[in-house]
Amino acid sequence: MLSYRIHEEELAGEAQLAWHQQYLDSGLKFADTYPEHPESGAVLTTVAEDLFRQNQFDLAIAVGQSVVSKQPPVKEPLARTAWTVIAHSQFDLNNYADAEQAYYRLRPYTPADDAVAHQEIKDRIASSIYKQGEQARDAGDLETAVTHFQRLGQAVPDSDIRATADYDAAAALINMAAWSRASTVLEDFRRDYPDSEFNEDITQKLAVTYLESGRSAKAAGEFVRIANAPGSSDDVRREALWKAADLYKTSEQIAQEQDILQEVIARYPDPLAESIEARFRLLEIAKASGNQQARTQIQKDLIQVDATAGAQRSDRTRYLAAIASLELAEPVRRSFMVTKITQPLADSIKLKKSLMEDVLEVYGDAAAYGVAEVTTAATYRLGEVYQQFSKDLMASERPRNLDEAAMEQYVLLLEEQTFPFEEKAIELYKANATRAADGVYDEWVQQSFTALATLLPARYAKSERSENVVTALY
């Protein structure tokens, strides 16, 4: 065999190739003819190596198998070389399952102190397992693909491609709609690889898996991450915050919803159409929780935002500001309503009129928005204020030092004083009542008819009944 080698080096081109093939054939013939010869194992090992170098992988595997199957067994260095040839050849033939097993067989023949060789074997095992996962995935067998991708980390925990395998396992589970399993893999990925380049994508995938599995609060947390991710655009961040707020609302995590809505307002005041909706939702939360201080502040904010909206002012901003203005008027009205007229009359009436002016101003501001339901409410309340002033004046504390005649005169004078206020109340109630002819018949118009039926029963008691009949017909 040595003479073949020496002569081969003297040749070139086609002649050298032909001679080398003759050399291989000679080696195989020698081993077949003299299987018991002490050098037969070495000769076959050399032939297997040469076949591998020539990419004759199937034949290299067959010869390598002959080496490792010899009895008595060949020496360890030869076995190591033969298993190396077998494993590499199987790998290059895309027979990754067989390659993996061959690499396992190679391990015992590798010197314990050869760290480089052991690392190369581990890398090859990891690659063989990963390639099996790829083959299964490409064949549409996602369950098997997941099995291979996940066992890579068990077989070679410190592999450089473990993160990629875990990521691909999660992707396959998502494609299988195995949402809970995918979530677990993704959560483990985030824990095990906190600095991975895939982490932003992991967040997006977790958002999907949590959503699909009905875990709204967990999904919301992932959308918050997206909203804070440096690689996201402003539009994506803003939309992610809104999605988080919606999901926290769905999962009844009100404190978290509130925090996100406040963040929307702080970070994205524009577009105004969105930030004002965030304020409206915060207002609803404040109402539900009974937080009057927060409720009042948000109502003032809605009015201010609408007033300064400029080109972004819309029917919606005006509507919300009108409703807020109407509600802010309520404590002013209540203060007026509970204040009685007492002696000394001049001072008491002065206070009552001052409170009345405040009420007229706030309801006038509310009506000025031109929102129908607010206008009818404000109009009714204004009529109510005038009527109440008239009532309070008539019910005011009487002087104690008047005789009967003087008291009668005093009452007549009071009636003259109350008449203009009652007339003004009637005027406002009538203004509301006329809106019924335009198709507006909300609770405030109805209450206006009721008030008129009391003040002018001859006309409006019947009129109100007619309106009720018409409403019932429709």
Quick gist of this model?
This protein is mainly α. Among the domains are: 1-109, Serine Threonine Protein Phosphatase 5, Tetratricopeptide repeat, CATH 1.25.40; 340-457. The chain contains 22 helices and no strands.
Largest sheet: none
Radius of gyration: 45 Å
Strand content is: under 5%
Poorly predicted sequence stretches spanning 5 or more consecutive residues: 465-474
Helix proportion range: over 70%
- Distance between the first and last residues' Cα: 111 Å
Q: What is the tally of helical segments?
A: 22
Mean pLDDT: 89
Global shape:
rod-shaped
Question: How would you classify the helix and strand content by structural class?
Answer: mainly alpha
User: Oligomeric status of the shown chains?
Assistant: single chain
Order of helices and strands: HHHHHHHHHHHHHHHHHHHHHH
Number of strands: 0
Task: Provide a descriptive summary of the structure in words.
- The protein has 474 residues and is mainly alpha-helical.
- 78% of the residues lie in helices and 0% in strands.
- It is built from 22 helices and no strands.
- The termini are far apart.
- The C terminus is likely disordered.
Which features would summarize this protein structure in a list?
disordered C terminus; Serine Threonine Protein Phosphatase 5, Tetratricopeptide repeat; mainly alpha; 474 residues
List the helices and strands and how they pair.
Elements: H1 2-8, H2 13-33, H3 40-53, H4 57-69, H5 76-92, H6 96-106, H7 115-138, H8 142-155, H9 162-175, H10 179-192, H11 199-212, H12 216-227, H13 234-250, H14 254-267, H15 272-289, H16 292-307, H17 315-338, H18 345-367, H19 372-394, H20 404-433, H21 443-455, H22 457-473
Helix pairs in contact: 1-2, 2-3, 3-4, 3-5, 4-5, 5-6, 6-7, 7-8, 8-9, 9-10, 10-11, 11-12, 12-13, 13-14, 14-15, 15-16, 16-17, 17-18, 17-19, 18-19, 19-20, 19-21, 20-21, 21-22
